[in-house]
Amino acid sequence: MRVLETTVRASEGIAVGRAFVVDRCTASTSYEKGAPEVEQNRFEQALQQSREQIETLAADSEIFAAHLEIVDDPMLSDAVVAHIDEGDSAHDAVLQASAELVSMFEAIDDEYLAARAADVKDIFARIAANLTGGVKNPFEGVAEGDIVVDAELLPSDMALLDFNKIRGFVTAEGSATSHVCIIARNLSVPAVVGLKGILSEVKSGDTIIVDGSGGRVVIEPDIATLDEYKVRELNHKALLAEQQQAAGAEIFHNGERVYVFANAGSVEDVERAIAAGADGIGLFRSEFLYMQSSVEPSEQQQYEAYLSAARSCKGKPLTIRTLDIGGDKAVPYLGFEREENPFLGWRAIRVCLELRDMFCRQLRAILRASAEGNVRVMFPMVVTLEELEQAKELLEQCKSELKSQGVAYDENIKVGVMIETPAAVLIADSLASHCDFFSIGTNDLVQYVMAADRANAKVANLYNPYSKAVLRAIEMVIAAADAADVECGMCGELASDTEATELLLGMHLREYSVNIGSISKIKYQLNNLLK
Description:
The protein is an alpha/beta fold and about 525 residues long. The chain has three domains: about 1-25 and about 140-240, Phosphohistidine domain (Glucose Oxidase, domain 1, 3-Layer(bba) Sandwich); about 35-130, Orthogonal Bundle (Enzyme I, Chain A, domain 2); about 245-530, Phosphoenolpyruvate-binding domains (TIM Barrel), CATH 3.20.20.60. The protein has helices spanning about 35-60, 60-70, 75-85, 90-105, 110-130, 155-160, 180-185, 200, 225-245, 265-275, 290, 300-310, 350-355, 355-370, 385-405, 420-425, 430, 440-450, 470-485, 500-505, 520-530, and strands at about 1-5, 15-20, 145-150, 170, 190, 205-210, 215-220, 250-255, 255-265, 280-285, 320, 375-380, 415-420, 435-440, 485-490, 510-515. Helix 10 (about 265-275) runs parallel beside helix 12 (about 300-310).
């Protein structure tokens, strides 16, 4: 019996089954590197072949539909051609461009945009395979009850797998925001990722235990361990069933409604969240429209996306966060300059208030969508009252423009502020008198309060949402909201943490905006606490 462990929180649950170790080997056809024009022609042929394959697959899968948008993005082909012009073969150029673009996306601490990094990697892998030996299905032979073990699982792999068969996932690479983790959590499939050395320890056919809750994999367990985990697996499935029953419930505490909203990074996320029992969307990340394109999305494109999301909410609140870029989310076509401290630089509301024409196009799109749904608008990274006043002034200006054009919108659209800096905490009382709601973004708040980069492993011990300083900041914000009779929610990771639910409820937090896979868990936890 061998046990491997990781600290990455992937997808909870217990799975016992047979390991299916994925074989990624493909037939390889080597070729002699030609002149740049020859290599560019090879790349273009492989790109076209990949596009045709994706078009066929997109008919049956939303994953591949998203790939179609990326494969036609000039940014992808321009990056490859640049390396070919420098003397690389088409294959090497694809690998180099993939590494560069993927690293750009992977630096972003955002579930949706991290998934885009996996999409980019996936597409480049397809192009590279078409340059050498063609694409094969690595999952042929997966049997009922198997646990898939791989170096890394890409988005297209999810479309090739039969989730009715798969009992769990284990990968050597990946993070809690990797595509496999997002899907595994949404489907309640146990997963352990980032388990270095797993491929040298396990082979196909081995009996393994996946303990997603503990970040542990047991290989060839002894009888006692196997029996113990089989009982735990049954208990966890029973708990999931109980949680699912709570998903559609309305929750009240002392006569007040307690809401469990969801965070969403796409229209598809909104649909899945509402189907999973969310009381609405507490955070709709609008930057996905900007990040997936090589040019700024038009007002009409944004309006159509927001309208689709609003309709998917079926009358429940849709909170659209205005463009939150900069820091870890750069958009190449906006010409961001390199900054020594991007998290302390030109980002979020600061960008929008400077690029006012772009900001107004987004505000008009949001307002137009509000005519047909329960839409709220939320401004990110506000640190001064003047920023909020300027943003609201532009919103009023956009209202006037639409009114003069006879375009419908919700004249009483609610306006909110993200509270994610110490500055916003300290002036929360002033902000509360100029807005309708707060949403505490704990991911950034912890980082700024503790002066600890959330992506830096060396200061991971300081990045602690349960530190006294962070908890005191949260209490101050909720108290300021209560005093002004302003709604207060939380959309950071802490809201999805069942261990924090009782603490937050005691602070009088009444809106929890969580990842989709946590909707039923948080509702179940709240129900138990309020019995």
